[in-house]
Specification:
The chain is mainly beta and 233 residues long. The chain is built from 2 helices and 19 strands. It has a 19-stranded mixed beta sheet that branches.
C-alpha cells in the first residue's frame, strides 16, 4: 500500500514538473484595422474570414513574450521582437480572424493556412525562405504571387482568377491546378516548379531548369533559356 502511494505521488510530481516546464500559455492580442498580414516566425498561422478582428496565440509563455504583433499601414506584422533569441523549435500556433484579406507574406520557415475562401479585387501572396502558404479557394480579379527560396504556395480547388502573375526565384513551388486563371504570366528563375490551370492565355518565361506544367487549352507564348520545360499536363 505504501509503495502504491509513493508511486502515485512520484507520478503526480512528474506530471506537475512536466506541466511547469512546458510553460504552455494562451494569449489574446488586440489588433485591428488591417487587410494584409506579414508572418515572420517559425510557427503556424491559421486565418479565417469573419466580421470581427481576433488574434489568439498558443505556445510557450516565454516564446509568446518575444512575439511582436503590430499594425502598420494596413498590415498586421507578426515577428520576433528580439531577433537574437531563438525559439528552440518551440511550437507556436496563431489563430487569426479578419474581415477581409488582400495580401499575405511569409518570411522564413513558417506556415500560413487560410481556412476560408478569399474574395477580393486584388490579392498579393509572397513567400521568402522555406515557408508554406495554403489556401482553400480564391475568387479574385488580379492575383500576384512571388516565391523566393524553397517555399511553396498551394491554392485550393474552388474559385477563379481573371489575371494572374506568378514569379518563382529559386527552388520553390506553386501548385494551383485546381483554380482556373484566365490570363496567366509565369516567370521562373532557377529550378522552381509551377503547376497551373490557364484558361485563355499563358505567357511562360523560364531561365534555368524550372518547369511549368499547365492544364487547360490556352494560347501559349513560351520563352525558355536553359534546361527548363513548359508542357501541357
Amino acid at each position: 500500500m505504501k509503495k502504491s502511494i509513493c508511486s502515485a505521488v512520484f507520478l503526480l510530481s512528474l506530471i506537475l514538473t512536466s506541466s511547469i516546464a512546458s510553460g504552455q500559455s494562451r494569449e489574446t492580442r488586440d489588433v485591428l484595422g488591417f487587410t494584409s498580414v506579414g508572418f515572420g516566425i517559425s510557427g503556424e498561422l491559421y486565418i479565417k474570414i469573419g466580421p470581427e478582428f481576433n488574434l489568439v496565440m498558443e505556445g510557450d509563455r516565454d516564446v509568446l513574450k518575444d512575439i511582436e504583433t503590430i499594425v502598420r499601414d494596413g498590415k498586421l506584422i507578426i515577428r520576433k521582437e528580439n531577433w537574437r533569441l531563438s525559439f528552440n523549435n518551440e511550437k507556436v500556433t496563431i489563430n487569426l480572424t479578419m474581415p477581409e484579406l488582400e495580401g499575405v507574406g511569409v518570411s522564413g520557415s513558417g506556415k500560413v493556412e487560410i481556412l476560408d475562401k478569399i474574395v477580393a479585387d486584388d490579392l498579393d501572396f509572397g513567400v521568402s525562405g522555406s515557408g508554406k502558404l495554403i489556401t482553400s479557394g480564391l475568387d479574385v480579379d488580379r492575383f500576384v504571387c512571388g516565391i523566393s527560396g524553397s517555399g511553396d504556395v498551394i491554392l485550393g480547388s474552388t474559385g477563379s482568377i481573371d489575371r494572374g502573375e506568378i514569379s518563382i526565384s529559386g527552388s520553390g513551388g506553386f501548385s494551383g491546378e485546381g483554380i482556373e486563371i484566365d490570363d496567366l504570366e509565369v516567370h521562373i528563375s532557377g529550378s522552381g516548379n509551377c503547376r497551373c490551370w490557364a484558361g485563355d492565355n499563358l505567357e511562360a518565361y523560364i531561365s534555368g531548369s524550372g518547369n511549368i506544367t499547365y492544364s487547360g487549352n490556352p494560347k501559349v507564348d513560351a520563352k525558355v533559356s536553359g534546361s527548363g520545360h513548359v508542357r501541357s499536363k
